[in-house]
Structure formats: C-alpha cells, structure tokens
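Researcher: Quick test of sequence recovery. Tokens follow.
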C-alpha cells in the first residue's frame, strides 16, 4: 500500500496552489458581501485548465484520471479563499459536466463539452423542487412528448449557478404509471430555450459568491436529441452519477480543512496572552490537534475514493461516508477556527467568520448529512434503513 503521490501529482498540486493563491480570491470579501459571481476568476480558472481537468483531451480538457483530478481540486480548495467561486466550479463540473461525460451521446459531448471546458458555458443541475428535495422520485416537473420535442413544465428551486448558467441538466417526469424508477428522464436544456426563466435569485448565509436561483419551465420545447440516456433513464442516471458529485465535491472541502488548520496554527503561534502564545494553552492546542486529526482522516477517505474511481469501481458507500465525514468535519473545524481567533474570528475584519458561514452549506447540498447516514446504514445492512 503506497500513500505517496506521484511526482507529477505533487508538481500539479503546487502549481494549482500557486495559481489559486496568486490569481484568485482577491475580492472574496466583496463578492460575499454583494452576493456577486467572480466572472474574472471563472475565466482565469478556465484559462488555467480547471474546467477541463476530468474532460478528455479530444474535447479540450486535461484528461486527468480521477485521483489526479481529486488532488488538483483539493489544491484549488486550499489555495482559493473565495469558497463561492470554487463551489460554482464544483457545481459546473460535478453536477453538469460529469453527466455529459458519463451519459452523453457522442454528438452531445462534441457539441457541448468544448464550451463547458473553455469557460464560455456555465453548467447547472436542476433537480430540487419546492416540495421535493431528498425524495427524488416525487418530483413534479413534467416533460410531455410532442413529436420530436418534449415540453417541460414545472419549477426548480435552490439551483446553484442558475442566474448565470448557460446549460441546465434538468430532471422531469415522463411517465405517470409503471415503475417509479422508470418515470423520470434527464434533459440538457440551454438557457435560451423559450419558456425558461429565472424567476428569482435566492440569498443565502454562505457561499454567497455562488449565485442561486429558482428556475421556471413553461412548456419549454426541448429536442429529443437533448435527452440524456433515453426516456425513463433519469433515476438510474442520477443514482449512478451522484457518487461522483458527492465524492469529488469533497475534495475542495478537504483543501479548506487544510487552509483552516494552517491559518489557525499561524494565528495561535503569533497571538500572545499572559506573556505567551495562545497555542501554548491546552484549550487552544487541543482544538488544533482535533483539526489535524479531522484533516488527516478526511484526506485518507478522499484519496481512497479517488483510487476506487481510478480503478473503475463503484463507490456509493464510500462517497456517502466521505460526504458525511468531510461536511461535518469542515463545520467543526470552521467553528474551532472561530474560537481560536476569538473576537477576531467573529467579526468581518478577517475571513474566519465567512469560512464558518460557507461551511454550513456543506451538510445540506448534494444530499444532507442525514441522507448520507441513511445511505450508509442501508449499505451496511441495517434492516429498514433508507
């Protein structure tokens, strides 16, 4: 068992951290305050190749294997202090691009992936509805077939990237009878489709630089050629792809765990009270020790997940455990960082309080922590768990 990174992966990690530190996040506080998307940062990431890390070279990407992609995403999360920008990129990659990579037809890939890779198109994932979140099979948006078109009608809410997205992966109901798992279909819906509207933007506590909105569909005509995987394949597509979203989105969170630890250690070493650094006090040093333990365990789980995907293996259980542990760990470590910084961690002068607000969302998006516990329990053999 070899836990070391390849020389190329180590070099990539350093390049990404240097890029993110030097070129991203300078206006993070401003984007958080004003709830604005960092379009310049997005373009810088596109030019650096971030949006194409998992995309094959034939579509303009880097063609990185899963583990190398995870290492790069972790480094991006460590180096970029604008968590909202990183989260927008994650939604683009792991809730839109990955659906095309895994389930798109050759024509769909050739038509869309180059634009998603070079940053000229922003992707979003439209699943959640006002009355359906975790209960995917209960969604109400419909897609009625008329010839070679489907007419989409319904409302999607809490959609990250929606106000600035150019392409939506939309899940809709195409059957009212038969097996529930065959009732849903997935569609690729461009922003300019008639009848598609952003009905409102949604303000939130953290990750405020990632725009969120409510999307309406009023008999939106979508060509049958924009179906992903065929009629009735939506649920299977979702369940087979969600492990990628949950696992890979955890990578930047592990990077944030490392950044929080380094920031807190630095502050505890410099800040003095009672004639000594506050890190000398056990109450502070134990918090830092716990942060280090959480980081190490999270990274081990993350790299195991990456290795499994690199081997082409299923990792539904591992992705659920990873999502659960990393989300809860980041929330705990962000709170510890606030406590280490004291009053300075609570006020807006430093970005520490923003880190805590941003971490709150991790236990919600991509399936709540309680949903992950249900998945883990079910796959562990707990009778009746779902």
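Model:
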């Amino acid at each position: 068992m070899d836990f070391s990174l390849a020389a190329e992966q180590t070099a990539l990690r350093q390049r990404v951290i240097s890029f993110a530190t030097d070129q991203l996040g300078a206006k993070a506080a401003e984007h958080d305050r004003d709830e604005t998307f960092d379009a310049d940062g997005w373009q810088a990431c596109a030019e650096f190749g971030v949006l194409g890390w998992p995309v094959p070279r034939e579509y303009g990407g880097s063609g990185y294997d899963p583990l190398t992609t995870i290492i790069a995403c972790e480094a991006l999360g460590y180096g970029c202090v604008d968590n909202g920008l990183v989260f927008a990129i994650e939604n683009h990659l792991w809730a839109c691009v990955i659906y095309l990579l895994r389930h798109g037809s050759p024509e769909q890939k050739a038509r869309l992936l180059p634009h998603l890779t070079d940053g000229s198109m922003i992707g979003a994932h439209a699943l959640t509805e006002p009355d359906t979140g975790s209960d995917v099979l209960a969604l109400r948006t419909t897609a009625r077939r008329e010839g070679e078109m489907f007419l989409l009608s319904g409302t999607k809410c809490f959609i990250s990237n929606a106000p600035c997205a150019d392409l939506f992966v939309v899940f809709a109901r195409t059957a009212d009878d038969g097996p529930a798992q065959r009732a849903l279909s997935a569609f690729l819906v461009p922003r300019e489709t008639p009848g598609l509207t952003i009905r409102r933007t949604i303000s939130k506590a953290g990750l405020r630089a990632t725009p969120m909105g409510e999307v309406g569909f009023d008999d939106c005509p979508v060509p049958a050629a924009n179906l992903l995987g065929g009629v009735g394949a939506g649920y299977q597509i979702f369940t087979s792809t969600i492990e990628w979203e949950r696992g890979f989105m955890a990578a930047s969170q592990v990077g944030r765990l490392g950044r929080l630890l380094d920031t807190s250690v630095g502050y505890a070493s410099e800040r003095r009270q009672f004639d000594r650094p506050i890190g000398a006090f056990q109450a502070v040093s134990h918090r830092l020790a716990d942060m280090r333990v959480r980081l190490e365990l999270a990274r081990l789980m993350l790299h195991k997940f990456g290795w499994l995907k690199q081997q082409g293996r299923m990792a539904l259980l591992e992705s659920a455990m990873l999502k659960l542990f990393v989300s809860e760990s980041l929330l705990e470590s962000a709170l510890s960082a606030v406590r280490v910084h004291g009053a300075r961690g609570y006020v807006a002068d430093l970005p520490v309080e923003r880190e805590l607000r941003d971490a709150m969302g991790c236990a919600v998006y991509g399936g709540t922590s309680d949903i992950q516990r249900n998945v883990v329990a079910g796959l562990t053999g707990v009778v009746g768990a779902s």
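The chain has three domains: 7-122, 124-234, 236-380.
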